[in-house]
Amino acid sequence: MDYLFISFDVPDDEQDLLIAELYDIGFDSFEQEGDILKAYINEGLFNKDLLNTVLEKLSISRDYKVEKLPITNWNAAWESNFSPIIVEDKLVIRANFHEKVNQIKNEIVITPQMSFGTGHHDTTYLTLKTMLGIDFTNQSVLDVGCGTGILAIYAKMQNAIKVVGVDNDPWAFKNAQTNEKESNVSGINWIEGVLEDVPQFKFDYVIANINKNVIKQDISNYYDYLKPGGNLFLSGFYLEDVHELNNLAYNLNLKILATNHQNDWAMLHFKK
Hints:
This protein is α/β, with parallel strands linked by helices. The protein is built from eight helices and 14 strands.
């Protein structure tokens, strides 16, 4: 499987909006270099018509070039740009070629291999920041669209008794298992598939760091997987989307506990 990458000449202050739109149509990795945005997508997911519709909507030039990037080159590009992430001085996310950060107890070691969720993106960071304040001991956690698996891995590191991560991307499924081993964690149930493939169970926490359209479609299903009093974390969308998602949650009788945001991206915490 090859990846494609496309370079866009877009002002720096407009790139976050373009990233959000590209993420919704299958792009999953991005590099920002001044006014140049590089976007990566699995070749099998690329749809030129959808891309042109997004660019027209945002009044961005359609003068772009699609290039194929073999897996080995993608990983090399990732390694050259990936730096460790420290979340609130309590958690470090690093690759296995980085030195250990001795002053921080908790660490997750990852090798993304084309999976979304390294901690660099604001939505992943926001979700991890929220999770840092929670005691997951003997709790059950479902990570929907788990990507690299770091949210599920962190929950398991914090003594969650049952953790399930599900993703329909075969690379994410394999990569999450690799990252679990690299992080010296075990016991997570990884599922290659969609939410409906997760055996029915009532979880203490359901986490969905995906995107607005998927959340709108599946929020009632997230509700069904929550036990009474359970917590729902939603992220992967803009602050401007919060009102719409709050209304959907309200219709399910979910109680909003917190709204967090960073660089116009948002994360919502609800209780059933």
